[in-house]
């Protein structure tokens, strides 16, 4: 019996889903079309991501970069920056900021979301208020807080503390580095927690009510319900946000740059702040590149963790 | 209240507990306290900002500060708008954000569609290289990217103070490719084959079949694109260094050292208003887009 070929010619070839190969010219056309579609992204990734990554790695082993005749200097840049006393101070500052931000900024949005989720009223009001600071230009929020933190009685915070008969503080101008760091984290938490709160609220909405019901029948109180139902049910999003926050806060720059200028005595000069100083104040490009490379290694670990976690979230 | 103790919205506190008189009392007390705390923590600072912008020069730096402006000096806002040229800063930012959005939508969607459906030779390598950039945060690349923008290799153009320095690097975002490709992967293959059989080319298939189905994911990409430009500080600080090209963040930063406090605070208020207004109007869309992006991306 003669077989009738009823499949009309396709205008273009989609990637083969079965093991039958299309004729060469059709395949070639698919590849060419494919790369035409990719061209814009390839251009941007090439010039503004892949090339800078390669250049970054090369520069960390180079000297005299700004002269245009870079020379290979081996590990000299790494030796130079690790001998700089500011190096360890900067890592300490970034890690302290990240750690404090985990205590404050990570727990707070989740706690707030769990609390808001209990209310049957005013949800829109809560969501709007917590998200308002996120909408401000970050620099506007930072400059505003700089005024709030004014020492003496002139600042808004001290004025409020004074009215409440509480001790006042010098905030970002305190001689105590912990107070300065806490002031930075407080600002950062205020201005950023809205996003995380909304994400958690959405995740909480997806928890099936029956789980709470059965926990209740088993005699669980509120705290045990949080521990046995709420947290396990939001585990994946909690761990994703954990990694994302560490990656974001380890790159802290704007907060100390505007609120403290890196002080007191360079104690809040974070790693990215120090990269900026090496590159654009001391014009030590090799040093800046070496420090960036170290930060990259640290953050890549967390970036890898994020990808691994979100792949797991996909399968779940 | 009929909604109190409604069994359809079950959470930590059981509906039975809420319907008891004691439960009701606690509920309304807690709600009142929470509403007041939220107002104090999130709205009061913004009230302080708007009010300080209305104070006179002396009153603004007076110690202790006044809770309500004694004389309303509306001219601060007029001065901030005219002399500090907030309109120009906002307009620049709008251009940067709009361009970044357009380039990201066009280039990322086309690339993700190609990698998902056309799958050209070495497509997997390209995909891997694009996703690998997710592990490299922008702040560790500021110096080499800055040097690249200063003198683009092969083409030898300088992009400093040009919107291209904001637009093009924003496209090199592995996250866009990641979520778009994953979304395109989930579209049924038969639908696209059917379009191909009907004689639709790849551009037509993308435009009239794929894109209409992709609205939610395009919303996520758009919101992230705009928010990223709105929030960025370090990159524009490096590449936009003349007042005519400042974005809102850079403009406010440069002004913060020089202007009188009351006028500057009025400028902060003015610069915050458009985005807050925009948010109020599109609240629902933005909220659902943000949460969808975080949960599914």
Q: Would you mind describing this structure in some detail?
A:
The complex is a heterodimer of chains A (316) and B (297). Chain A is mainly α. Chain A has 13 helices and two strands. Chain A has two domains: 24-59, no CATH class; 77-136 and 177-315, Orthogonal Bundle (MetI-like fold). Chain A has a two-stranded antiparallel sheet with strand order 1-2. In chain A, a hairpin with a 7-residue loop joins strand 1 (62-63) and strand 2. Residues 1-9 of chain A have low confidence and may be disordered. The two termini of chain B are 38 Å apart. Chain B has 297 residues and is an all-alpha fold. At the A-B interface, helix 1, helix 3, helix 4, helix 5 and helix 6 of A face helix 2, helix 5, helix 6, helix 7 and helix 8 of B.
Average pLDDT metric of chain B: 86
What is the name of the CATH architecture of the largest domain in chain A? Orthogonal Bundle
Percent range of helical residues of chain B: over 70%
General form of chain B: flat
Compute the number of structural domains of chain B.
2
**Helix content class of chain A:** over 70%
Class from helix and strand fractions of chain B: mainly alpha
Strand order of the largest sheet of chain A: 1-2
Number of domains of chain A: 2
Oligomer: heterodimer
Low-confidence stretches of chain B: none
CATH topology of the largest domain in chain B: MetI-like fold
Report the strand count of chain B: 0
Count the helices of chain B. How many? 16
Sketch the topology of chain B as an H/E string, one letter per element: HHHHHHHHHHHHHHHH
Q: What would you report as the Rg of chain A, rounded to the nearest angstrom? A: 27 Å
Largest sheet of chain A: 2 strands, antiparallel
If helices are DSSP runs of H or I spanning 4 or more residues, what is the number of helices of chain A? 13
């Amino acid at each position: 019996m003669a077989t009738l070929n009823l499949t009309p010619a396709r205008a273009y070839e989609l990637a083969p889903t079965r093991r039958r190969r299309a004729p060469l010219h059709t395949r070639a056309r698919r590849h060419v079309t494919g790369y035409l579609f990719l061209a814009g992204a390839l251009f941007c990734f090439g010039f503004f991501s892949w090339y800078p990554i390669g250049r970054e790695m090369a520069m960390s082993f180079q000297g005299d970069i700004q002269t245009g005749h870079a020379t290979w200097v081996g590990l000299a840049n790494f030796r130079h920056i690790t001998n700089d006393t500011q190096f360890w101070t900067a890592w300490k500052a970034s890690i302290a900021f990240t750690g404090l931000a985990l205590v404050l900024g990570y727990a707070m949005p989740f706690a707030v979301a769990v609390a808001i989720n209990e209310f049957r009223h005013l949800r829109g009001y809560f969501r709007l208020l917590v998200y308002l600071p996120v909408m401000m230009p970050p620099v506007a929020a930072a400059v505003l807080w700089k005024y709030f933190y004014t020492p003496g009685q002139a600042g808004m915070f001290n004025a409020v503390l004074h009215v409440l008969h509480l001790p006042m503080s010098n905030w970002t101008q305190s001689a105590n580095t912990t107070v300065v760091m806490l002031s930075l984290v407080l600002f950062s938490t205020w201005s950023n927690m809205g996003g995380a709160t909304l994400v958690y609220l959405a995740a909480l909405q997806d928890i099936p009510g029956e789980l709470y019901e059965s926990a209740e029948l088993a005699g669980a109180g509120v705290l045990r319900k949080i521990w046995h139902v709420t947290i396990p049910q939001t585990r994946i999003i909690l761990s994703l946000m954990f990694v994302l926050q560490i990656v974001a806060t380890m790159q802290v720059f704007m907060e100390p740059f505007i609120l403290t200028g890196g002080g007191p005595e360079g104690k809040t000069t974070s790693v990215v702040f120090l990269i900026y100083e090496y590159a654009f104040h001391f014009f030590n490009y090799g040093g800046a590149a070496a420090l960036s490379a170290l930060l990259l290694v640290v953050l890549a670990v967390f970036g890898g963790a994020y990808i691994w976690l979100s792949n797991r979230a996909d399968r779940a | 209240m009929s909604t109190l103790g409604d069994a359809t919205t079950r959470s930590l506190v059981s509906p039975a507990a809420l319907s008891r008189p004691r439960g009701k009392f606690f509920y309304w007390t807690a709600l009142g306290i929470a509403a007041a705390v939220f107002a104090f923590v999130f709205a009061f600072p913004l009230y302080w900002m708007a009010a300080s912008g209305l104070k006179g020069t002396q009153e603004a730096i007076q110690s202790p500060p006044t809770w309500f402006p004694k004389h309303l000096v509306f001219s601060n806002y007029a001065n901030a708008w005219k002399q500090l040229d907030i309109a120009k800063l906002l307009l620049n930012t709008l251009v940067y954000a709009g361009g970044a959005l357009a380039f990201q939508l066009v280039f990322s969607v086309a690339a993700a569609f190609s990698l998902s459906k056309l799958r050209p030779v070495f497509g997997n390598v390209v995909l891997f290289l694009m996703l690998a950039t997710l592990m490299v945060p922008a702040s560790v690349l500021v110096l080499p990217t800055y040097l690249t923008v200063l003198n683009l290799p092969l083409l030898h153009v300088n992009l400093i103070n040009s919107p291209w320095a904001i637009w093009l690097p924003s496209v090199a975002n592995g996250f866009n490719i990641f979520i778009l490709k994953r979304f395109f992967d989930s579209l049924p293959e038969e639908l696209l084959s059917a379009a191909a059989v009907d004689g639709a080319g790849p551009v037509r298939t993308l435009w009239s079949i794929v894109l209409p189905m992709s609205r939610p994911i395009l919303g996520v990409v758009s919101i992230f694109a705009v928010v990223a430009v709105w929030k960025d500080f370090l990159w524009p600080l490096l590449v936009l260094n003349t007042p005519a090209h400042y974005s809102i963040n850079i403009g406010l930063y440069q002004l913060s050292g020089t202007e009188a406090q009351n006028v500057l605070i009025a400028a902060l208020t003015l610069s915050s208003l458009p985005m807050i207004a925009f948010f109020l109007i599109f609240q629902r869309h933005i909220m659902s887009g943000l949460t969808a992006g975080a949960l599914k991306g």
